[in-house]
């Protein structure tokens, strides 16, 4: 492990009256909404916290926003299941890390049917898992746009890992290594409107810090989804992943994830 976190007290959900007023009124003009799970709230306060969060999520979803819920690890027994049940239908997207997959019923060996069942069971249009060497999404949207979103998230997280803080002009670290991801970049799911999208991540064996990397990855993906539609970037790069198109598996050169070639840079 690169860090140990010790919690000395349960945290209450912060409720800001000013944010509540303007967040609801102005949220429809945002590009996307990002929700953090109340995974540090104690069992007694959790139902109320979920009601509060869900009320915002519904308002933003009804306005047409991508509403993403990042799960995290829950300290309250049954807190994860309670959160999934309460937020079902109120969010459009859920994210988690590789180690959290078993907690939501996903095998760590990618099984298409499990992913689709989880997404459809909770009314999602998008499901994302980020691991150290890759990121993977199930989406009903444009897979090329999702590939750009995953690449942006991986780029920002790796750049932060290299120096230990957010980077204004990110590049894939020189010392980064790339592994063969578990799936091709874009894999249409048989007999459905879903696609699996997979992107390798620049991996650093010795990062300056690991704090905030998952949050930075998620923020990077939302940066793409919150913006206006743009022509695909990653899917259009000749030789990306060592292939002429996006239909196979191979390695990716660090140059292909530099800031000049990334979405929104």
Average predicted local confidence, pLDDT: 87
Strand order of the largest sheet: 1-2-3-4-5-7-6
Q: How can the largest sheet be summarized?
A: 7 strands, mixed
Which blocks of ≥5 consecutive residues have pLDDT under 50?
242-265
Percent of residues in helical segments? 25-40%
H/E topology pattern: HEHEHEHEEHEEH
Give a verbal description of the structure:
There is one protein chain. This protein has helices at 17-26, 46-62, 79-87, 112-121, 143-163, 213-226; strands spanning 32-36, 66-70, 93-97, 126-130, 134-139, 186-188, 195-200. The protein is an alpha/beta fold. The chain folds into two domains: 29-124, no CATH class; 137-222 and 238-265, no CATH class. The chain has a seven-stranded mixed β-sheet with strand order 1-2-3-4-5-7-6, with helices on both faces. Helix 5 runs antiparallel to helix 6.
Write the topology of this structure.
Blueprint: H1 17-26, E1 32-36, H2 46-62, E2 66-70, H3 79-87, E3 93-97, H4 112-121, E4 126-130, E5 134-139, H5 143-163, E6 186-188, E7 195-200, H6 213-226
Parallel strand pairs: 1-2, 2-3, 3-4
Antiparallel strand pairs: 4-5, 5-7, 6-7
Helix pairs in contact: 2-3, 5-6
């Amino acid at each position: 492990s690169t860090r140990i976190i010790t919690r000395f007290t349960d945290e209450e959900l912060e409720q800001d009256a000013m944010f509540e007023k303007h967040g609801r009124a102005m949220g429809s003009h945002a590009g996307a909404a990002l929700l953090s799970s109340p995974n540090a709230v104690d069992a007694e306060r959790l139902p109320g916290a979920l009601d509060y969060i869900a009320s915002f999520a519904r308002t933003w979803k009804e306005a047409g926003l991508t509403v993403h819920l990042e799960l995290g690890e829950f300290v309250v027994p049954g807190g994860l299941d309670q959160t999934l049940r309460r937020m079902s239908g109120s969010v459009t997207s859920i994210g988690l890390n590789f180690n959290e997959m078993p907690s939501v019923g996903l095998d760590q060996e990618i099984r298409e049917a499990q992913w689709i069942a989880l997404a459809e069971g909770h009314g999602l249009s998008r499901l994302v898992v980020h691991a150290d060497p890759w990121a993977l999404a199930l989406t009903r949207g444009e897979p090329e746009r999702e590939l750009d979103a995953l690449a942006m998230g991986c780029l920002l997280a790796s750049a932060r890992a290299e120096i230990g803080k957010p980077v204004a002009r990110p590049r894939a670290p020189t010392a980064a290594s790339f592994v063969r991801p578990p799936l091709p970049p874009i894999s249409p799911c048989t007999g459905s409107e879903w696609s699996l999208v997979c992107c390798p991540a620049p991996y650093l064996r010795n990062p300056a810090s690991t704090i905030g990397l998952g949050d930075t990855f998620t923020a990077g993906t939302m940066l793409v989804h919150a913006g206006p539609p743009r022509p695909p970037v990653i899917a259009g790069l000749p030789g990306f992943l060592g292939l002429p198109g996006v239909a196979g598996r191979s390695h990716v050169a660090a140059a292909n994830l530099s800031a000049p070639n990334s979405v929104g840079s």
